[in-house]
Every structure is written in structure tokens, then in C-alpha cells.
């Protein structure tokens, strides 16, 4: 005989030993307990669904915002190809333009003559866009690849990797 069967048998023996009124009381209590468990489960699931719907709405909003920003960057890349190109070290140009906009560069790694990788901990998104536009239009340096995440502070982003190249 399994352990479950033994426990069930002991419970049934105990239950049958109760008076009729006690048995009815326990049955009603079990029904209410079952309803409570069912309601708790359903309400928890509903709350989870609402949270998921809110997160989805936020992600859709963020996605449309990102698509708008990509369009701005793409148009800036397209318009800057015929723009001015500065002479001088890319690293020097990047540092100088960043300093003008009060941007603190945490990491800068020249890869080739025309490619530099940059890392910035926190920067305002609008400041980033202004800086990239300045680099593009005034110096012919474009963003080849960018990997950033939203910061906990509204309006700020963390740049994990920004590949800048001179055309």
C-alpha cells in the first residue's frame, strides 16, 4: 500500500469518526477553501496578464520611438556623406566635440585609421543625437554600429559600444 493510500485511509477513518454536524461543517469549510484557492489563483493570473499587457504597450511605444530615432540617424547619415570631412586624428575630433557638449567618454579604442570604438556610461539621448549629427555633418564621421540601453534615469542611455567611422 502506498504512502498516499495510507494517509487517505487514516483521514477517512478520522472523518467517519466525526459527528454528522462536524462532517457537514468540514465539507462546507472545504468548499469555501476551494473557492478561495480558485479565486486567488484567477486573480493572480489576471494581475499577471495586466502587467504583461502594460509591459507590451511600453515596449511597443519604445519600439516606435526607436524607429523614429533610427529614421533620424539614417537621414543624418545620408545627408552627411556629401558634408565636410575634417583633417586630423579621429580620436582628437571625437574628444574635442564630446568636450564641447560636456560628454564624458569612458572608453575610446582606435581600431583602424578610420574606425574608433567608444563607450559612454550615461548620456542624454538628445545630447547623443546632437553629438552624432555634429560628427556627421562637420567631420564626416558616422555611427557604423551602436549598442545602447535605456538608463534608469528618464532620457538617459548607456552606450555599451559605439563604432564611429570616417567615410
What does this structure look like?
This protein is of the alpha+beta class and 167 residues long. Strands 1-2-4-3 form a 4-stranded antiparallel β-sheet, covered by helices on one side. β1 (107-112) and β2 form a beta hairpin. 13% of the residues are buried. The chain contains 4 helices and 4 strands, in the order αααββαββ. The model has no long low-confidence stretch (mean pLDDT 88).
Please provide the count of β strands. Answer: 4
Largest sheet: 4 strands, antiparallel
> Which structural category fits the helices and strands?
alpha+beta
In terms of DSSP E residues, the strand content is 15-25%
Helical percent range? 55-70%
Number of helices: 4
Average residue-wise pLDDT: 88
Oligomeric state as shown: single chain
Q: What is the H-and-E element order?
A: HHHEEHEE
- Rg (C-alpha, Å): 32 Å
Low-pLDDT sequence parts: none
The outline comes out as rod-shaped
How far apart the termini lie comes to 81 Å
Spatial sequence of strands, sheet with the most strands: 1-2-4-3
Short description:
The protein is α+β, with helices and mostly antiparallel strands.
Features:
alpha+beta, 167 residues, 4 helices
Provide the fold topology.
Elements: H1 3-16, H2 20-80, H3 90-100, E1 107-112, E2 115-124, H4 125-139, E3 141-150, E4 156-166
Helix pairs in contact: 2-4, 3-4
Amino acid at each position: 500500500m502506498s504512502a498516499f493510500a495510507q494517509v487517505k485511509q487514516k483521514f477517512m477513518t478520522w472523518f467517519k469518526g466525526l459527528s454528522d454536524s462536524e462532517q457537514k461543517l468540514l465539507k462546507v469549510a472545504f468548499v469555501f477553501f476551494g473557492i478561495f484557492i480558485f479565486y486567488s489563483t484567477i486573480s493572480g493570473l489576471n494581475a499577471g496578464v495586466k502587467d504583461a499587457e502594460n509591459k507590451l504597450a511600453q515596449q511597443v511605444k519604445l519600439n516606435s520611438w526607436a524607429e523614429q530615432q533610427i529614421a533620424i540617424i539614417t537621414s543624418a547619415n545620408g545627408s552627411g556623406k556629401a558634408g565636410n570631412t575634417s583633417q586630423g586624428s579621429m580620436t582628437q575630433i571625437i574628444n574635442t566635440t564630446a568636450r564641447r557638449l560636456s560628454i564624458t567618454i569612458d572608453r575610446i579604442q582606435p581600431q583602424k585609421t578610420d574606425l574608433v570604438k567608444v563607450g559612454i556610461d550615461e548620456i542624454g539621448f538628445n545630447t547623443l543625437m546632437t553629438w552624432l549629427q555634429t560628427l556627421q555633418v562637420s567631420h564626416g564621421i558616422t555611427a557604423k554600429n551602436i549598442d545602447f540601453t535605456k538608463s534608469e534615469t528618464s532620457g538617459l542611455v548607456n552606450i555599451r559600444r559605439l563604432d564611429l567611422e570616417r567615410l
